[in-house]
Amino acid sequence: MSLPNQYLEEMRQIYLFERLDDAQFGQAMDHARMIQLTAGDMLFAEGDPCHHFFVVIRGMVKLFKSSADGSEKILELIPPKQLFGEEAMFLGQHSAYAEALEPTQLIAFDCHYFAGLLRENAELCLRMMTLMSHRSKSLLDEIGNLTLQSGIQRVVQYLMEAGNYSGIACTVRLNLPKNVIASRLGVKPETFSRIIAKLRNEGMIDCTKDTIRLKNVDSLRQVADGMLWLKVA
Amino acid sequence: MSLPNQYLEEMRQIYLFERLDDAQFGQAMDHARMIQLTAGDMLFAEGDPCHHFFVVIRGMVKLFKSSADGSEKILELIPPKQLFGEEAMFLGQHSAYAEALEPTQLIAFDCHYFAGLLRENAELCLRMMTLMSHRSKSLLDEIGNLTLQSGIQRVVQYLMEAGNYSGIACTVRLNLPKNVIASRLGVKPETFSRIIAKLRNEGMIDCTKDTIRLKNVDSLRQVADGMLWLKVA
DNA sequence: CGGCAGTTTGAGCACGATCAAGCACAGTGG
DNA sequence: CCACTGTGCTTGATCGTGCTCAAACTGCCG
Questions:
Q1: Element (H, E) at B143
Q2: Which of B185, B152, B172, B174 lies closest to B214, judged by CA?
Q3: Taking Cα atoms as reference points, which of B199, B191, B124, B118 lies closest to residue B157?
């Protein structure tokens, strides 16, 4: 039960599999299968027993926590070429919910089988640990941002990162609904909207629909770094 | 440069090293050395190049983020027998600050050398990945708690976990200063104090100095689960 | 055209932060 | 033995960020 060639080539370029020789790669792709999701499909829930981990091919997956009263916090947005759910392989169950935001294709790897490959291939382990380390770092950063920064700071930081650091003015295209970005940043949609309006009134950005022009990058950077306070009210 | 026998025996019981045979264990302990810290000593800073990862023997280490204006958020409190800083081994630099809260002894393992051991021992890798998975899960949980729960809920949850789930009334001894616990829970010391006072006024707990009796465990559980709201004001 | 979901804007509120004062306690030195 | 000091904790008063509830607006699709 191997994958179509089209997907095999894409998997070849995933960091985790890059350095495997053809035989090892073939083994890794055994017991892998393609999954097609439509927007809103739930992939797994928190606490579900874990049988697979995943790589996104096309589309977007949201990883999120949910509270008793139904509100959500998006932990991570998983774009194509990225792996997720691997930590559950070692814990036996998933730590959060996963749901497709768009029509999404992903490859599912059998945990039990893959654990066997890991046991025989320390190089593969090292790559896996490197991925897990990056995840840990980004989670640590996220906790710092949530507790030490204001909503405005997180929004501006997000815009600057999306605008890939070009020192001068640049435009950002939001590739996701604003309420999704808001949840990712830990604010309510209304608050997100107000923050964008505030930045527009301050002349730091222009925006039309889902396209945002970063006009005054210096000021924005000051806001993100906490050197410049914008009163919300 | 091996360690005194006293410490070797303690290292033997660390999850990461449990299953190694004597030869492997001996190798792992090569290039390990003991470090003695006094309260307030900084072990590493965020961004520092990483040369070691650590296991706490005695004492307590705080892992924290710091913002421009000097305020801190404790990410994790590391008790004896626990490992930390391992993710930096794969990233090259530390993701947060680490500082001793008390007189603390720890063992430092040389990253470069240990990476070599990992490359030759997939079983060791699996153990390491399991540890990293647990860390990821607890970080994911932390993000959920910070964004989906109120301060009161986090405090109550902390007390219940510290009182190890005995269904009936129990006493909790806070083994750390309250301002440290407050930072760990993402609230200011004043707020923490007010929350404790609130719980006392509601008759759910008794407290004298650093000892807290959980009187009404049912109500406390309801508060933690969001089934019961306590107005702060 | 109506319906619906996403977004914006308004008004008011509450949680938790800030600033400030008071208190308990331990350590130090006269 | 008693000030003196410093630190950590508590309590009070006030403020602001961000949330809630509500309404209006936009774009999209049937």
A1: helix B122-148
A2: B172
A3: B199
Answer for the pair B141, B74: CB distance below 8 angstroms, yes or no. Answer: no
Contact call for B65 and A128, based on CB within 8 A = no
Look at residue A1 and tell me whether its pLDDT is greater than 60: no
pLDDT in tens, A141-162: 999 999 999 999 999 999 999 8
**All domains in chain B, ordered by first residue:** 5-147 (2.60.120.10), 149-224 (2.60.120.10)
Q: Which nucleotide is nearest to B186 (CA to C1')?
A: C16
Nucleotides in C strand less than 7 A from protein CB: 6-11, 14-20
A125 touches chain B (CB under 8 A): yes
With CB atoms and an 8 Å threshold, state whether A140 touches B139.
yes
Query: What is the 8-class DSSP label of residue A40?
Result: T
Please give the structure tokens belonging to residue A19.
Answer: 């350095």
Tokens (6 digits) for B58: 């005695």
CB contacts, 8 Å: A133 with chain B: 86-91, 132
Least confident of A25-29, A162-166, B52-56: A162-166
3-class DSSP state of B103:
coil
Look at the pTM and tell me if it is higher than 0.85. Answer: yes
Cα B125 from Cα A124, distance rounded (Å): 10
Q: What is the pLDDT of residues B51-78, one digit of tens each?
A: 999 999 999 999 999 999 999 999 999 9
User: For residue B47, which phi and psi values (nearest 5 degrees)?
Assistant: 90, -15
